[in-house]
Structure formats: C-alpha cells, structure tokens
Design goal:
The complex is a heterodimer of chains A (235) and B (336). With 235 residues, chain A is an alpha/beta fold. Chain A is built from ten helices and ten strands. In chain A, helix 3 packs parallel to helix 6. Chain B is mainly alpha-helical and 336 residues long. In chain B, 71% of the residues lie in helices and 1% in strands.
C-alpha cells in the first residue's frame, strides 16, 4: 500500500461524460511520479480528483491508509497535500515574502525558519523577497509558486505542468529544484508535457490514454519501452 | 501683499474645501474599491449605505442633545460614530446574508451582482425614508469655526480673510486616522494580507486555506466603517439630506476608477483628484486675477470655466476620459 493513492477513480465535470474512468495512481514519500499522456487524456482531471476539486463518481483517495475522498480541498491542504496549479499559481500583486506567508496561512507557529528554508532552496528569491511577484520572470514566478506550496511542509506535493512556458534552461533548473524537494521526504506527483525530461527525473510514471491507465513503470522502463517511445515521446 | 491676498483667496475658496470634499470622496471611493476588489462587483448602493449609517448618527445626536450630553467644542455626532458604525455593519451583514450571499454562492457574473445592488439601493432608500424622512437636517453642534475671516484679517492685516471651519479640520484629521489604520491593517496584518491575496487570486487563496467567509465578513466590517464615517463627515460639513448621498455616487465612482478600481491607494488619491478638479474648474477666478494682474489687464467677466451646476459633468468627463485612455486607472488597478 502506497502512502498516497487514488484507487479506481472515475470522475467528470458536472453531468458530462466521464473524463477519467477507473484510473489508479499512487505515490510514496520521497518519490517523484510523473503522469503523462496525450492531450485530453485526463491528466489534469486525475490530479484535480486527487485534490478534491472534482467529486469522484466512484473510487477513493487514500492518504496513509485513511480514506479522504470526502474531504474538501481546504481540508486536504490541512492534511498536508499541496498543489501548484498550472496557471495563476502565485499572488502577483503581493510580494515574495507575502506569497510565502499566505502559503502557510494555516500554520500558526513561527514562520521565519520555514521561510529561511525556502530561501535556501531558492536563493534567487531571497534577493527579491520584498519585490512584487508580478514583476518577476517566469522561472522565478514558478519558484515562488513552488515555495508557496512548500510552506505548509507538505507530505504530498502535486504539480500541474510546472515547466509550462519556460525556457529549456529554466526548465532544467526547475527539475533540479523538484529533485531537491523530493529529498525532504515528499511524495511528488506531476503532470508534464516535457515527457522525456520528466521521466528522466521520475522514479515512476503513468501513461494515461482516454482516462485509463495504459502503461506504468519506472521512469527508465517507460523511457526505453518502444511502444511508449513511439506513441508519446516522438522517437 | 497682493500676491499673499491671492494665495489666501485660493486657500480659502478652493484648496481647503477641496481637501475636505476630497477626503469625504476618498472614504467612499475606498469603500467602492474594496467591495469591487474582494467581492467583485460595483456596489450601486454605496451612496445610500453612507446615508443609512449617517442617519443613525443624526438620530443618536438628537437623542444625546435632548439628554443634554455634548462633546464640548467638538460635534456630538463624533460620539455617535461607534453606534452608527455598528448599525451600519449589522445592516450590511444582513443584506449580505440574505441578498448578496446567494448570488455569490451561485457564482453570478459581476453585472448581475451590480444589478442586485441597485435593488439594495432602492430598498435602503425606502428604509431611510421610513425611518427619518427626506428632509434636510443639521446636526452639527459645538464650535463651528476654528478661525473666522474677521479674526484672520485682524491678525494678519490682509484684505482677504481665511475661514477654517471645524468640520474641515475634523474631516481631514479623521480621514487621515481612518485611512492610515486601514492601510496598516491591509499591509501589515495576517488577515489584511489574506484579504489582498483573496482579491488577487481567489482560487489560489482557497487552496492556501483562506476562509472566504471570514474575508467577506472583514470586508463588510471595513466597508461599514468607511461608509459611515465618510457619510457623517459629509453630513457634518454640508448638512444631512438623505438623498444627496445618491448624487455623490458619481464623483465617488469616478474617484475609484481614476485611481484604478481595486486599488485602495488609488481610490484614496482619486478622491482628491476629483475634488480638486471639480472645485478648480468651477471657481470664479475674477478676484484672484484682480490681485495678481496689473489694473489694465483686469478681467471683466467672472473667469469661471464652468458654472457650479455642472460640477457632476466634471466627474463624468474625467470618468469617460480615464475609461477611454487608461481603463486601468491612473494608478494601475484591475481592468474593467
């Protein structure tokens, strides 16, 4: 049994058709799990279901053995599940410092130490801590978004396309940061378009097609699987 | 000497009144901008909500006066502020619970909420009409003048007198206290920061565990304080005519939009921009030019750009110009 798991999840928007059906995903602490798949495969939907932004029609979400399927997103945040959306993932009118503080809104203890840890992880942000986030570059904003999500010291971190729209150099840098975060014993689940790079840092990966599990395996296996390569990696 | 006279003349008839009027508009404009930023709709009941709060101050002032209680040199109305603010907040929260809350939960578009606020405006007007009626009431007591024109002339020996009304100083002073406390709250406290975060990015605020109900509650409380104090200051300065507040909504909205709607600093400064524009453009400069120009160049007309009847046209023109050329306001706000 994994630390964080979604079992046989079926979900869709409103009364529309099911976007994911019987989809199973799990992640352990200290592990990076990539969710891959073509457009419309239900990657983001699967993540939203894990987070409680969508109601499950069937299946369940378990954390540390406890069924949390009925928890609201806010209650899941309280349990230590953090999420970085793909867009609008920072408070662009607030300063870096304020963004981090809001990230820890539910924590009452002294935040100075946590903020210091975040600045050690993202040294660039320390120099800009009093700057409004809207004025930062795309890569720096993604770092703020990651930092904000890390403020509650999550045990599960979910990232929706963390490298969307950043340059290749910044992308490598962000992946390095994600690997560093993993070392703090966090279970990381990410949806990625840059499949090759994502798999190269992932411990495991899932490939979804039309809302169902199609392939799964270690990052290396998936990278070397000829069928996965042909269909999704373009080589 | 003539130059000094000209300065005093401007100070007395334009700058001092504009600072006072600007402060009153600023309080209303911050109210509009806060509601727009956090609850995401243009509140057309603004003017009447200000009037509603002031009504309680007027009633309690009369009651205190009948008991023989006063505030010495200061207006008794200042004593009634906590009570009036309390009643105002109570009214706003009731309206929010039974009216706005429903549409917020339904995630209605902002236009629909704005239309709902028009309904709230009519109901508020009706309640005011029932409780106090539409007539003009003066509730200013205590010392009316800090400096009278005659005294000023005697002291300085100038031709022009400077009159400082106590309401002018009270308005400016109270505005500074209220606005600086509010900015301190918004920028330095955890709750204030969470309000700005909610206004900036609602979804992410929810994901960070910010409780929207609490944000809405705090917003109405601050709005109630601003509306009531702004209304009372305006009523003390002019007089309490319940439905004049409705007319003031145009300059108040203009101030909020000029300052960039959703931006409280902008709304604060916008209040003064509108007030100075209104008063500078409608003042008759004849006497001013008589002081500073040689006799041969003295104007024969009033040198008044616009009649004071057109002062609302000025707010309206500024509003249109800003919306055409800088829709996000002079000081960056949200785009409309």
């Amino acid at each position: 049994m994994a630390f964080f798991e979604g079992n046989n999840m079926t979900a869709g928007y409103g009364n529309g058709p099911d976007i994911i059906s019987s989809c199973t995903l799990n992640a352990n602490k200290g592990e990076i799990v990539a969710i891959l798949g073509p457009n419309g495969a239900g990657k983001s939907t699967a993540m939203k279901s894990l987070l409680g932004l969508l109601n499950l029609k069937s299946g369940n979400v378990k954390m540390d053995g406890e069924d949390i399927s009925k928890f609201s997103p806010q209650d899941r945040v309280r349990k230590g599940i953090s999420f970085v959306p793909q867009t609008k993932n920072v408070f662009s009118e607030l300063t870096v410092n304020e963004n981090l503080k809001i990230g820890a809104f539910l924590r009452d203890e002294n935040l100075e130490n946590v903020i210091k840890e975040i600045f050690e992880l993202f040294p660039v942000l320390f120099d800009k801590k009093n700057q409004v986030v809207g004025e930062l570059s795309g890569g720096q904003r993604q770092q703020v978004a990651l930092g904000r999500a890390l403020m509650i010291k999550p045990s599960v971190l979910m990232l929706d396309e963390p490298t969307a729209g950043v340059s290749p150099i910044v992308m490598d840098e962000l992946f390095d940061h994600i690997v560093k975060i993993k070392k703090n014993n966090v279970a990381i689940i990410m949806v990625e378009q840059n499949a090759k790079q994502a798999l190269s840092i992932s411990d495991r990966g899932y490939v979804l097609v039309t809302g169902k599990n199609k392939f799964e395996g270690s990052g290396k296996d998936l990278l070397n699987d000829p069928e996965v390569r042909r269909s999704f990696l373009g080589a | 000497m003539d130059f000094l006279n000209a300065i005093i003349l401007l100070l007395n008839f334009t700058i001092l009144p504009a600072l006072t009027y600007g402060s009153q508009l600023a309080l209303g404009a911050i109210f509009v901008t806060l509601i727009y930023g956090v609850l995401r709709f243009a509140n057309f009941a603004t003017g009447d909500m200000m009037s509603f709060g002031t009504m309680f101050a007027v009633i309690l002032t009369y009651y205190l006066q009948s008991l023989g209680i006063n505030f010495g040199m200061l207006p008794t109305a200042l004593l009634t502020i906590p009570f009036a603010v309390f009643m105002m907040i109570f009214y706003m929260l009731t309206v929010d619970k039974f009216v706005f809350g429903y549409y917020r939960l339904k995630k209605s578009p902002p236009v629909q909420l704005a239309m709902v606020s028009v309904g709230v405006m009519f109901v508020t007007q009706a309640i005011i009409r029932i409780i106090i009626g539409p007539s003009d009431r003066r509730f200013l007591d205590g010392e009316k003048f800090i400096l009278k024109a005659r005294e000023f002339k005697e002291i300085t020996g100038l031709n022009e007198g400077l009159t400082i009304k106590s309401t002018q100083i009270i308005t400016i002073f109270v505005t500074i206290i209220v606005v600086s406390t509010m900015f301190w709250f918004l920028n330095k406290t955890k709750t204030g920061t969470s309000m700005r975060a909610y206004s900036d990015n609602e979804d992410l605020a929810l994901l960070s565990g910010i409780d929207p109900k609490k944000v809405v509650l705090i917003t109405w409380i601050i709005a109630g304080i601003l509306a009531t104090i702004g209304g009372i200051l305006y009523g003390l300065d002019k007089s309490y005519r319940p439905f004049v507040y409705f007319n003031n909504m145009l300059p108040i909205f203009a101030a909020a939009i000029v300052g960039g709607i959703g931006n409280p600093y902008g709304a604060f400064l916008g209040g003064y921009v509108i007030a100075f524009a209104e008063i500078f453009l409608t003042y008759a400069y004849k006497k001013f030019f008589m002081y500073i120009l040689p006799e041969s160049l003295e104007p024969t007309s009033l040198v008044q750009l616009l009649s004071t009847d057109y002062k609302f046209a000025i707010s309206f023109s500024i509003l249109v110009i800003v919306l055409l050329f800088r829709p996000s306001g002079i000081f960056e706000g949200k785009k409309i």
